[in-house]
Amino acid sequence: MDDLDKLGLATASAKARKSYREGGIPIGAALVYHGSSLDLSNAVVLGCSHNQRIQKSSPTLHAEIATLEDAGRLKADVYTKCTMYTTLSPCSMCTGAILLYKIPRVVIGENKNFVGGEKLLKEHGVEVKVAGDTECEELMARFIKEKPEVGKVHLYSTNYAR
Amino acid sequence: MDDLDKLGLATASAKARKSYREGGIPIGAALVYHGSSLDLSNAVVLGCSHNQRIQKSSPTLHAEIATLEDAGRLKADVYTKCTMYTTLSPCSMCTGAILLYKIPRVVIGENKNFVGGEKLLKEHGVEVKVAGDTECEELMARFIKEKPEVGKVHLYSTNYAR
Ligand SMILES: [Ca+2]
Ligand SMILES: [Ca+2]
Ligand SMILES: [Zn+2]
Ligand SMILES: [Zn+2]
């Protein structure tokens, strides 16, 4: 993995671990601006956050949505020069948010615990890269095993894991 | 329009007007529980809100997302017995949120000012009803005319209107 994606995914992963330590769903994300090249030297982390379903009792603050909130209101063309990093394959809502803001590139930590809107993203011309990160995968699997009731309600029933 | 849909759309419309009075984007929504029949006598408005892009400087609190937040965390099966009312055709993010929570029915005030994810909803078996409400249509058109810069940035560039 190149330096930019290493930074982006590590930033998202740190948020996932923070959420896990708080007893929350361990999914993190980061929105990284890089301009028209994928060069780390131009990169800015515009926002990063984690799923806040448990922490804020929120049905919509998934990692990617919370990250867009963390980044705040940006000019439309800024999004078009960013990559969204997320530790887990994005659900249909987060997929839609990525399409809404025309974010051209998504790097996914893992899609073993859940496969989301990757196909729809690709159909709309978004570049999708699955890193196959074992740390992301193991943390999510551990959470589902430790809190099966949360896994069942939050992940399975709401389409959030296979 | 039957009584249930009249109530739901009127509730969403009141929120759109509130947002307009606050100088915000005049889009409102309501999540109404009705059980397995579409009978008004069983109905409960679980949540209702409006777009809060201007008011809360939020990139993700569209009317439907704010409405899901207003309703709070619900059991997964509650969503499957609800209708989402929204004054304007839902964008890709809100479309994805409706699919995430498996809300089976969406009633749209108008789709003249913007056509969102109606096709995707239908492909996933969601019932989509467009009310063709002239009040919704006129309020949104007035806003776009009065605040073309907001219309341009928030609506057009982020895929929010044709
Ligand atoms: Ca942050
Ligand atoms: Ca409300
Ligand atoms: Zn999501
Ligand atoms: Zn929306």
Automatic annotation (TrEMBL), chains A, B:
Pathway stated in the Swiss-Prot or TrEMBL entry: Pyrimidine metabolism; UMP biosynthesis via salvage pathway; uracil from cytosine: step 1/1
Primary location class: cytoplasm
Domain CMP/dCMP-type deaminase: 3-128
Gene Ontology MF, one: cytosine deaminase activity
GO cellular component: cytoplasm; nucleus
UniProt enzyme class: hydrolase
Catalysed reactions listed for this entry: cytosine + H2O + H(+) = uracil + NH4(+)
Location(s), subcellular: Cytoplasm; Nucleus
EC numbers on record: 3.5.4.1
Family indicated by similarity: Belongs to the cytidine and deoxycytidylate deaminase family.
The entry's keywords: Cytoplasm, Hydrolase, Metal-binding, Nucleus, Zinc
InterPro entries registered for this protein in UniProt: APOBEC/CMP_deaminase_Zn-bd (IPR016192), CMP_dCMP_dom (IPR002125), Cytidine_deaminase-like (IPR016193)
CDD domains xref list: nucleoside_deaminase (cd01285)
Transmembrane parts of this sequence: none
Subunit structure: Homodimer.
Cofactor(s) needed: Zn(2+)
GO biological processes: cytidine metabolic process; cytosine metabolic process; pyrimidine-containing compound salvage
Organism (species): Pisolithus tinctorius Marx 270
Cited function: Catalyzes the hydrolytic deamination of cytosine to uracil or 5-methylcytosine to thymine. Is involved in the pyrimidine salvage pathway, which allows the cell to utilize cytosine for pyrimidine nucleotide synthesis.
Pfam families tied to this protein: dCMP_cyt_deam_1
Protein name: Cytosine deaminase
Family annotation (PANTHER family): CYTOSINE DEAMINASE (PTHR11079:SF190), CYTOSINE DEAMINASE FAMILY MEMBER (PTHR11079)
